[in-house]
Design brief:
Shape of chain A: elongated
Number of helices of chain A: 11
Largest interface: A-B, 108 and 108 residues
Largest sheet of chain A: 8 strands, mixed
Distance between the termini of chain A: 29 Å
Strand order of the largest sheet of chain A: 6-10-11-18-17-16-13-12
Oligomer: homodimer
Number of strands of chain A: 18
Strand content of chain A: 25-35%
């Protein structure tokens, strides 16, 4: 490996010889002295080179100065010189007096995006856009969040799954389904790991989790949708109702948010002015019907024919919860059977409602959870009532015919959690490479 | 949640009332006493019920006995009764004297697979096959292995990526590519995260990892291939050569194997008779040309026209390494440029060899790693020499035009590692749901 000091470690290093490697953020090419701001994955530092002059003030041969003048923004290089602490230097209180530059790859001088470039142009040049400290931090936060979740799962004896993304049939609905040419036949991309994470239940796995891609051929262009997204899924056995799933969900979010706050709270506050709040448990729970009444009392009538909430209704109920309980999360529970998939269990004694919930975070839905119907004869009836052919679902229904425990779980959109945690305006900012109806590149 | 004791915790529990939940493994329905072996995700326990008789020896009304007699293998239930320690009981030294059964879902009595069912039939009924303790353990080992790797990465400041699996073009070769209908155009499934994990380098992410699916439209039916597999990828900046990648790779494997040995070593030994060996570092490194000479000296001439090794050659060199160095791993290094992708860096001064390696574990290739060519003009020439059109790769070549650090990494097949660690005969056993040319179900 190149011998280098990570830039974030320079303030704690002692004065003397130092090498750093990174890319050129800015060059200030002044008459008497040159400054380069070099950034690596951990921070930025000022490199300085006083130009060489003879005693009479005439410029001397100065190859290093020429090299600095020729540096294009974005060029990756290793810089060596003398580290010096100087509290007048705003950038970390240190600078490096340059002795040599070793250029790894020179950048084309014209940078295709600027600070004011529009979102689509930024996505065209995502690898440059990601050089921004904010964007880098988003993915370090993602890393911390996921690792905290996985650590919770592993410490609680969950099994990690990688379910197949190639399927012989739809997992959710026949709409929004991508078709794949598969040798002499065709396959479909998994819209969720639903069937296969449930399969772990009759398999006797007990508690499972998966973090992986899901695909929706959804033609919408909202700030919350993508055709490919990272789905965070968990499923557990021997629940009594969706209440048990919500408890798991809460504990997981607390573990994740606590880890993010501990590791990145100060940076998040500095870069976005956002304070990460570790949620208190239990999160508020409001049955959907009551939530609609509350929203109506606030003067908003959800303009939908079905029984569902809409995005503005979710914002309204979130505002109510924030005002009333000072909480950023709310479980909306007991959705109507008419707007839930056939595999959600319905209330005992009231077929019109399900043992299900949506989790709203800062006004946007981030997750759907439910107890699953595990009684195969009931499941078949529910599938029929949704207009599905049980024959097509036979491989799935088999999971229930040879014994299965009561179970439930949730699926959650990773990028939505990040977007709402950091108050970003669009899921695209929280996705490494966004995929939408007109976006397959880079 | 159902109040239950995990079966593995029964031996340490005190005698008295206990409830366990799981599925019926066997029923021994004897005249005087009935035995049920119930299994959950953690183990198995014997439930016992002495049939009821009047003093004169005539049978009494005994609804519990009737319920037990009616139990089908696979039925999921909660059993309550009195826990009793009894060292004569082979299964954990405990049994539960039954008081009640609460059936969650009764199984169809005819079980579609038996102990001697063939592999394909087992895959048809994978959720039943997974109930076997060995199969359950495979995925608990997978969980431990992955978590150890991720912990290593996170503690070493790697960023976790989720790169898109939908692409506008091929990432590896135009052969073995799945095509997806994508709105008014078409997309391809990622054969590897190669381009996008490299993109993190000009993005300034430094060190990254990803565990996610990769797709190959490979029509082969070997014990090592699947059309969808879980790829373990890592990529790092500022390397001097592939040697730096191999060092990372070794450290990661040591961390993973140490965690598996510590947590599951005894179970693995008990179930498979396999001792997990934490590899010593450095792993042996043998240039491919030398490996071919060694194999030839052992009497095996690799029957290939190109410069590559073949599976038997890999077994032979692994046997040599085991005999000579007592090591299960070997890096074969410096593959010929002719058999490596265009993006592998070639030797300084010898265009015919690459800064690359394959990692062989117990005789089978589990990974390919390399230093990547980061000099765009060299990269363009190498692409052309492979018959590729630089125009089609333009979005990828752009990653190198605006500055990029020297970098390298590897991709590794998760199921192959598990298969070889546990001495399984087929990757299908180490895959939750296998996908092959004729296998899309369940």
């Amino acid at each position: 490996m190149t011998q280098r000091t990570l830039i974030k470690n320079l303030p704690a290093a002692t004065d003397g010889p130092a090498s750093v490697s990174g890319w050129v953020e800015t060059v200030r090419d002044q008459k008497k002295v040159q400054f380069v701001v070099l950034r690596d994955e951990s921070g930025a530092v000022q490199l300085v080179h006083p130009r060489l002059f003879a005693e009479d003030g005439t410029p001397e041969a100065d190859p290093l100065a020429e090299a600095i003048s020729a540096l294009a923004q974005g060029t990756f290089l290793t810089a060596s010189g003398e580290l010096k602490h100087d509290e007048r230097v705003k950038l970390g209180g240190v600078e490096i007096k340059l002795e040599s530059l070793d250029i790894a790859a020179a950048a084309i001088p014209e940078t295709p995006i600027a600070d004011d470039s529009a979102g689509d142009k930024r996505m065209d040049w995502r690898f440059l856009d990601l050089r921004q400290p904010k964007n880098n931090l988003i993915f370090r936060i993602q890393t911390t969040l996921e690792h905290a979740w996985r650590t919770y799962w592993v410490e609680n004896d969950f099994i990690e799954l990688h379910t197949p993304k190639l399927m012989a049939s739809a997992s959710e609905s026949k709409a929004e389904l991508f078709e794949v040419g598969y040798f002499d036949t065709k396959a479909y991309l998994a819209q969720s790991p639903q069937f296969f994470k449930q399969m772990a239940q009759p398999a006797g796995f007990g508690k499972i989790f998966e973090v992986g891609p899901a695909f929706r051929a959804d033609p919408s262009f909202t700030s919350r949708h993508a055709t490919e997204f990272t789905s965070v899924d968990s499923e557990i056995s021997w629940i009594d109702s969706h209440e048990d799933v919500m408890k798991l969900h809460e504990e997981l979010l607390v573990a994740g948010f606590a880890a993010v706050k501990a590791k990145h709270g100060a940076e998040i506050e500095a870069l976005w002015g956002v304070e990460v709040t570790v949620p208190t448990t239990p999160f508020p729970r409001i049955p959907l019907a009551e939530a609609k009444r509350i929203v109506a009392e606030r003067g908003y009538e959800v303009p939908r024919q079905d029984d569902d909430m809409d995005p503005e209704g979710e914002r309204q109920i979130a505002a109510y919860v924030k005002e009333t309980f000072d909480h950023e999360f709310v479980f909306l529970t007991d959705y109507a059977s008419s707007i839930r998939p056939f595999y959600h269990m319905r209330h005992d004694g009231d077929d019109s409602l399900t043992n299900s919930y949506d989790l709203i975070f800062n006004g946007v839905e981030i997750s759907t959870g439910a107890q699953r119907e595990h009684r195969v004869e009931v499941l078949v009836e529910q599938a029929k009532s949704k207009g599905l052919e049980p024959e097509e679902l036979d491989f799935y229904l088999d999971f229930f015919r040879y014994g299965v425990p009561p179970h439930g779980g949730f699926g959650m959109g990773l990028s939505r959690v990040l977007m709402l945690m950091l108050h970003l305006s669009n899921i695209r900012e929280a996705t490494y490479l966004f995929r939408g109806p007109t976006r397959l590149l880079p």
